[in-house]
Amino acid sequence: MQEREGVPDLSIVFQSFVGYQKTEALRAAVDIDLFTAIGAGASTAQEIAARCGASERGVRILADYLVVHRFLTKERECYALAPAAAMLLDRASPACVASMVNFLASPQVMRGFARLTSAVRTGHAAGGDEALAPDHPMWVEFARSMAPLARMVAQLLANVLDAPAGGPCKVLDIAAGHGLFGITLAQQNPRAEIVAVDWTSVLALAEENARAAGVGERFRTLPGSAFEVDYGTGYDLVLLTNILHHFDVAGCETLLRKVRAALKPGGRAVTVEMVPDESRVTPPDAAGFALAMLAGTPSGDAYTFAEYERMARNAGFVRSELHDLVPSPQRAVISYR
Amino acid sequence: MQEREGVPDLSIVFQSFVGYQKTEALRAAVDIDLFTAIGAGASTAQEIAARCGASERGVRILADYLVVHRFLTKERECYALAPAAAMLLDRASPACVASMVNFLASPQVMRGFARLTSAVRTGHAAGGDEALAPDHPMWVEFARSMAPLARMVAQLLANVLDAPAGGPCKVLDIAAGHGLFGITLAQQNPRAEIVAVDWTSVLALAEENARAAGVGERFRTLPGSAFEVDYGTGYDLVLLTNILHHFDVAGCETLLRKVRAALKPGGRAVTVEMVPDESRVTPPDAAGFALAMLAGTPSGDAYTFAEYERMARNAGFVRSELHDLVPSPQRAVISYR
What we know:
Chain A has 337 residues and is of the alpha/beta class.
């Protein structure tokens, strides 16, 4: 909330009340592939409409809105992509993350937020454990939609873990989703072997991704609940990417104990998460993520590093360290057995 | 969409995809009256929770989110209101506009946005004429929720019209809603007489507001559709506040012709609206408003001054002028008979 010359700015309150309009505008633009059309040369509302199979009136109003919010620029009647839209929202760009809107603003996730007042009153999302049921379809949507962001974070993580320098390495990827964290390690280290745990429906997608990445022969799957399936033992590395935030501290410690038991001596558990600073109000994306856990889970949270460190210690790990994965909003906590 | 040091900022895309979360966070905070509780001295999550009848965990996560988005500040575990929240969101403040969220993010309005892709494709909101049906309950919600903003805009308009200096003045307030535009003129000019047109259910609220403002005896009502009801004649002033944006150009011209016929020679029609500049992409609130018309009406729009001027001329008005109503996002178009 900002102020102009000391006068509280009504516009900031107004824009925040209608924040959902920004979500829906971007969703509509991604749905009709407006950014890709402009990237490919369509410029006027008429040209964009023709390429997107949409109406000129609809495109004119949507594109003007996207200029207001700086995703596009406008000179006379011609629209162009702002640099960030060109990189992140045009499907022709290798860094395009447009599909994220399909998970981040999915009906299921938005339904949780529509009941936020009740979650604030009670401290827990009513029906928040629904998504934790076996083979819930939202995790297939997650695996599809979030893959482009995961590709970027997985590269950053592989750098932190110095994957290319690695020798033989047995990796357990828990709640693997798209599988890209393990797959990226396997691409960089030809001696890495991946075992991916997730629901059957999600693992089908992960296997597809592994084959497409040329590492299908070193990618095994273990379908079932992370809390119940038998991991086996002798792992060098266990990946816990974007899973611990769903659970309360006791749940996280239970899982971390199980992970520790599967690790070799000297092995590492790698937690990739939205980790806010100890103040819990910075950095913005990681700190704001706690609200999604209030809205969408029975008692999950965006835990701080001090909290992850304590949970890992209680689970028997000797020490933990925090690594930024800039420019992604995520961080890695590496805990040593 | 901004950039940091020339690198496209993933966070802006991420935050825009989850824009709806800001809406829901503010709605929840308004629902439990969190800003009022902090304004009254509650400071820690525990104290705020106790005063709001909410959970400490829920309040802690919500309040941290509101710090991230600068509605609150946080020092150690103590929260305080940012200046704009103190003025605009604490119900103890006379300028509080918190209730606006109940209309701006009402289920009806949000449903329209949830179908935005289809509106962009076809150029028209499917079911967008629903709200134009007689006595639709959304207009009672509008009249209640938007009254605090209307009070401010009505004062600014009364200044533009130089109401206190006025002699006898017969005012027709079309789609009066809360009635506050006419009521404010009646308060400032003791010789003003108001006739308010709206649906019966809405006029009950307007009459209540007129009595509370001490102008009940100079406030008459005329229930029915603005397009169908007999206005009578001899008006000095006809107010068209936030109504023309619902209709296409032909609809606006039809209404303006009817208005002109009800005016005395020398009389004025006063349109209060979100009026973007001719570029249609500034100022932000007015320009962005066109999207709400695409999502919520069959063929409404945020018209520019040139468009209002042309429509008024086609309806027989001799000239029109544009007045800002700063710091509100609205503007007034005064058209002379």
